[in-house]
Structures are given as structure tokens and as C-alpha cells.
Amino acid sequence: MASFPKVKMTVNQGEINGFCDARFERVAQEFAENYQQRDEMGASVCITLEGKPVVDLWGGIARPATNAPWKEDTIGVVWSSTKGATSLCAHILASRGKLDLDAPVAQYWPEFAQGGKEAIPVKMLLNHQAGLAAVRDLLPPGAFFNWEGMIHALERQEPWWKPGSQHGYHAFGYTMNRMGPGIGMNPRGQSLVDALYLSLGYTSNASGVWI
């Protein structure tokens, strides 16, 4: 454990334990507020800075049915954790002039234009306004793991609403990353992160980063 002040406090759902660098004291305060004011049951948070952990907190209840406490090594399910990385790649590419957020998605991915989607701009994928919050097709079990199948389903899908008129949570990992080959740096680019690596002068995604 890092040599930072230890944290041990009582909250509505038990105890919070761990450590926290004094520079991140507000993180610990907000973590505790989740229990006291926002009905948190159990959670953990870990922050690394320059490769070293500076905050590692856990607490509350892991299993409400048994009141088992949330421990240092309790495993939590994380949803949509790669959306931030995907967005970061997109905005870096935009800042380098490689991706136009106002351009139609079909400029980078021609097959996307099916179903009346030809004018949807890239930015509407990122801000969840493209009308692609779900797929109408009846999907078989395990379909989400079939990259090509999901891409083709999204290509056929008509927007659920007039793009830009409403908001609905999108799984934009499929759509944003499918534009990678069309961004134009190199035909080997298979995803947004590959396109980013190529734009930075690398010949490949040598680190194996996947989003």
C-alpha cells in the first residue's frame, strides 16, 4: 500500500477504508457523500498518477442479500468504460484535422448512409442524438460479440427519431470505431485508436490498445 494517509470512516452502509493522497482529499469526501446523500450501497475507486496509485478507496456493502462488506479486492462490473477513451481518440483526431465532427458519418463509412442516415454528422454519435439507441432487428444470443453482425445491423437501422431532435444513450463504440478505416491515414487502420496511432506517426498500434 502506498505511503499516503489511511482512510477509515463510518458511513450509512458500513465503513470506507483505503488511502488517499492529500491532494485528492475532495475525492474521498465525494466518495463518502455517495453513501451519506446519494444512497450508495457499495463501491470502490482507484486513481493512478504517473503510474502510481494515489487514491484507493472501498466501502459499503457488496451483497445486500447477505450484508457482505465491500472489500479491497471485491470485483465490480463496469459499464461503458471505453466511451471516454473512444471520445478522447475522436477529439484528438479532430484536433489534428483528421476527423471532422461536423461531417456526415457516411463520409468515413459509406454503408452507414442506409435507412435515411446519410446526413447524420459524427458529433451526433458522440452526443447520443443520432437516433441509434437500439436495433430493431431481433438479435441472436451473443450478437453483441459479433462485430461484423452488429455493424451490419447498425448500417440497416433507421433512426428512432429525427437526428438531433432527441437524446438517447448510444453504444457508440461500434459506430465510432467503424469509421477508423475511412479516416484515411492508412487502410490498415481498423478502429479509431488505430487511426490515432497512425496519425501520430506510428506504423501500427504497437501497444495493442483496444477500445
Architecture overview:
- With 211 residues, the protein is of the alpha+beta class.
- The chain is built from six helices and five strands.
- Strands 1, 2, 3, 4 and 5 form a five-stranded antiparallel beta sheet that branches.
- Helix 2 (83-95) runs parallel beside helix 6 (192-199).
- It is elongated.
Concise synopsis of the structure shown:
With 211 residues, this protein is α+β, with helices and mostly antiparallel strands.
Task: Give the secondary structure arrangement, pairings included.
Blueprint: E1 6-11, E2 14-20, H1 25-37, E3 42-49, E4 52-63, E5 68-69, H2 83-95, H3 122-126, H4 147-156, H5 172-178, H6 192-199
Antiparallel strand pairs: 1-2, 2-4, 3-4, 4-5
Helix pairs in contact: 2-6
Structural key phrases:
211 residues; alpha+beta; Beta-lactamase; 2 domains; five-stranded antiparallel sheet; 6 helices; elongated
Unreliable stretches covering 5 or more consecutive residues? 185-189, 206-211
- Give the tally of β-strands: 5
Main beta sheet: strand number and arrangement?
Answer: 5 strands, antiparallel
| Fraction of residues in β-strands | 15-25%
- Alpha-beta classification: alpha+beta
The DSSP helix count reads 6
How confident is the prediction overall: mean pLDDT? 87
Terminal CA distance: 29 Å
CATH topology description of the largest domain: Beta-lactamase
The radius of gyration over CA amounts to 21 Å
Task: Give the number of domains.
Answer: 2
Listing every helix as H and every strand as E from the N terminus to the C terminus, the arrangement reads: EEHEEEHHHHH
Proper CATH architecture of the largest domain: 3-Layer(aba) Sandwich
CATH 4th-level superfamily of the largest domain: DD-peptidase/beta-lactamase superfamily
Please tell me what the overall shape is.
elongated
Report the CATH C-level class of the largest domain: Alpha Beta
Q: Which bin fits the share of residues in helices?
A: 25-40%
